[in-house]
Amino acid sequence: VDVYAVAGNPIAHSKSPAIHQRFAEQAKQRMHYGRLQPEVGAFAQAAKAFFAAGGKGMNVTVPFKLDAQNLADVLTPRAQLAGAVNTLWKTEGKIFGDNTDGAGLVRDLLAQGIDLHSARILLIGAGGAARGVIGPLLEQAPKSFIIANRSSAKADELVKLFADLAASKEVALESRTLADLEDPAKTQYPFDLVINATAAGLTDESPLSSQAVSNIFVPSSFAYDMVYGKTTAFMQQALQRGARVSDGLGMLVEQAADAFLLWRGAHLTNLIDPRVVLAELR
Ligand code: ATR
User: What are the residue boundaries of the Shikimate dehydrogenase substrate binding N-terminal domain, all occurrences included (predicted)?
Assistant: First the structure.
């Protein structure tokens, strides 16, 4: 039986094994999907051992996505642009790396009825999680796209990195600091879609001050937190402004669906139903 695993640290509470087991049942695939917890700094060693022992594919989560990118012999263009890898597999002696996070986020947003093509988007955060989703969001040709970060340097870097793609889609791509968002004159408000990609979601803080919140959200806004399993402080702020909110569980399921299809074959696309698996998890 073909063996797969998710690698992260910590990993005990990962929902990926349950998600992939459900896809395997839906598509009538025989596979085993387990958990791996390499020590921080020992990802490459663990991944090499996994593939040497016959492992077919691996999902990679915090904090190993950059290590996974470095490990891969071949990267897909979107993994290169994302600067991170969440899906690995071995074919003909080579380890391939892809990133399905951004595509997963886009599909979850579309499934929740978000019209990305006309959206004014605010992405909060400029770390690895933010970078991973910018390309696929820009591909949808939104109306405008602002990357806001606590410190400006990283957001400016991302704007440079994605400038060509944004120009080709005719998207106005700009950076702001979180403090800028408190100033009604510095940015055009409100936003249709606000995505929290900061690590602040993991603790019980929001990256947004109350002044920023009142500029950013109107009742027609949609607030998406990439963290899952709770109503975060960021989501609560949006709810208080009457906006619609979502956690990131749908993104988790959708990125897993893409990984499953990369491993097991695109011909299985119509047999798996990520929205059913998501409903079961809820
Ligand atoms: P990840 O891979 O989860 O994106 P990361 O690359 O370390 O992790 O990036 C963390 C992001 O969360 C950054 O954008 C960081 O802002 P800075 O670049 O200014 O450090 C942001 N972040 C973390 N804690 C935050 C907080 N309490 N408030 C606002 N932003 C925060």
Answer: 6-88
pLDDT band at 242 (very low <50, low <70, confident <90, very high): very high
> d(Cα 255, Cα 142) in Å, to the nearest integer?
21
Q: ipTM of this complex > 0.90?
A: yes
Element (H, E) at 244: strand 244-246
End position of a domain, from candidates 64, 84, 99: 99
Q: What CATH number should be reported for the domain holding residue 150?
A: 3.40.50.720
The yes-or-no verdict on residue 201 having pLDDT over 70 is no
Is 143 assigned a catalytic role? no
Sheet holding 120-124, edge to edge: 172-177, 144-149, 120-124, 193-196, 222-225, 244-246
Query: Looking at the structure, do residues 85 and 189 belong to the same domain, yes or no?
Result: no
Q: Any known ligand binding at 16?
A: yes
Flag whether pLDDT at 199 surpasses 80: no
Same-domain status, 109 and 193: yes
What is the 199 CA–ligand 1 centroid distance (Å)? Answer: 5
Which residue, judged by its Cα, is nearest atom 27 of ligand 1?
A: 200
Catalytic residue among 56, 65, 169, 186: 65
- Residue 24: exposure state from Cβ atoms within 10 A (0-12, 13-18, ≥19): buried
Ligand 1 binding pocket (C-beta < 6 A) is 125-130, 149-151, 154, 198-200, 205, 207
What range does the domain containing 155 cover? 103-248
User: Which of 69, 99, 129 is the C-terminal boundary of a domain?
Assistant: 99
Is 236 annotated to bind a ligand? Reply is: no
In a domain, 167, yes or no: yes
Number of domains in the chain: 2
pLDDT in tens, 78-112: 999 999 999 999 999 999 999 999 999 999 999 99
Backbone angles phi, psi at 87, to 5 degrees: -140, 125
